[in-house]
Specification:
The chain has about 325 residues and is of the alpha/beta class. The longest helix has 15 residues, at about 130-140. The relative contact order is 0.13. α1 packs across α6 (about 195-205), α5 (about 165-175) packs across α7 (about 225-235) and α7 crosses α10. It is globular and about 70 Å long. Strands 3-2-1-4-5-6-11 form a seven-stranded parallel beta sheet, with helices on both faces. The chain has helices at about 10-20, 50-60, 75-85, 130-140, 165-175, 195-205, 225-235, 245-250, 280, 290-300, 320-335, and strands spanning about 1-5, 25-30, 45, 65-70, 90-95, 145-150, 155, 175-180, 185-190, 190, 210-215, 220, 240-245, 255, 260.
């Protein structure tokens, strides 16, 4: 097939392009050519999806059998591109996010029928999850062909540009006493970008429509097992020091960002780690062991000098300051003195 990937050079987009090339598809990528180099074997069209002339050049490079949009964040921008691509492809897959569901993370076992944020398909500003919902509507309501929405949960894997697992691997690589948050037995649910990529291509190839929530296997690791896998992968002498949630909160540690993926259990977050991927699993989604994800991420990361590793996502910087970490550990040690 001829496949257009909007994005295609970073993390999940890169994984989708790699999988499509492996399957023998003819892949065109459309991106600015700024974030990362295009993968060998693609036809690269460089441009900005917010620039009309660039969209015109893109449309002229078609037609395609399939479009996979990995980097749509603003509904009005996605809508403009959808209109330019009408008649240039038969099927459009939009990579959204679990954040598009207004009920997440407050509801347990969220599935595809969950309520999404209200957001019009021509919105120009707003919060991340709200805008993702608007992007979905721009595709579903205005693309003249079959449409599919993939809604990932927490994505990890090689080439991660969000900075969560890379930060933990880098911190544990440094060794010594490592501040570990909360309950080591906390069940998590993570998924490898490469598994989402394979499933997305599977569904795109058969022109599947509707929506799939791809959040992985419930309880496929715990926070403690996950960090111990980081120790195993790096071969570090790191010692995990587990510190109570309340102790960390009282010292101003930011959840989710300063200690990546740490979220204190609460009614409003009770569904963080248990959305349902049952529909996707029934349709063929498979998930590799978390150990493989951690090991492969480390194999990629270790080739990047520490000073060049980025732990900043589109919205957050990840990782606690070493001085703050050391101070908290000292206070934890002295709490019963």
């Amino acid at each position: 097939m001829r496949i257009l990937v909007i994005g295609g050079s970073v993390f999940l987009g890169r994984a989708i392009v790699e999988e499509a090339l492996r399957r023998g598809h003819d892949v065109t990528t459309f991106n600015r050519g700024v974030s990362r180099p295009d993968l060998p074997g693609v036809t690269a069209v460089h441009g900005d999806r917010e620039v009309s002339a660039d969209l015109d050049r893109l449309a002229a490079a078609g037609p395609w059998d399939r479009v996979i949009d990995v980097c749509g964040f603003t509904p009005s921008v996605v809508l403009d591109g959808v209109r330019r691509l009408n008649g240039r492809a038969a099927h459009y897959t939009f990579i959204s996010s679990i954040s598009a569901f207004s009920e997440w993370p407050g509801v347990t076992e969220l599935d595809e029928d969950g309520v999404r944020h209200e957001c019009p398909p021509d919105a120009t500003s707003g919060e991340y999850g709200v805008l993702k919902a608007g992007c979905e509507r721009a595709v579903a309501e205005f693309f003249d062909g079959g449409t599919l929405v993939i809604s990932p949960g927490l994505i990890l894997g090689p080439h991660e540009n969000v900075g969560r697992l890379p930060w933990w691997l880098t911190r544990i690589e440094r060794g010594g006493r490592v501040l570990a948050p909360g309950d080591p037995g906390l069940p998590m649910q993570v998924i490898d970008a490469r598994d989402i990529a394979a499933f997305t291509l599977d569904q795109s190839e058969i022109s599947a429509t509707g929506r799939f929530l791809t959040s992985g296997v419930p309880g496929n690791t715990t926070y403690g097992d996950w960090l111990n896998l980081c120790i195993e992968a790096t071969g570090s002498d790191a010692e995990l020091v587990w510190v109570d949630d309340r102790f960390l909160l009282d010292r101003g540690v930011e959840q989710w960002s300063e200690l990546p993926l740490w979220m204190v259990p609460a009614p409003e977050t009770r569904g963080t780690w248990n959305p349902s991927s049952a529909k996707a699993a029934a349709a063929g989604l498979t998930c590799r062991p978390v150990r493989e994800t951690v090991q492969d991420t480390w194999a990629w990361l270790r080739e990047i000098p520490v000073a060049e590793r980025s732990f900043r996502s589109r919205m957050l910087s990840h990782g606690i300051d070493p001085g703050k970490e050391a101070k908290i550990l000292a206070e934890w040690d002295a709490r019963d003195s």
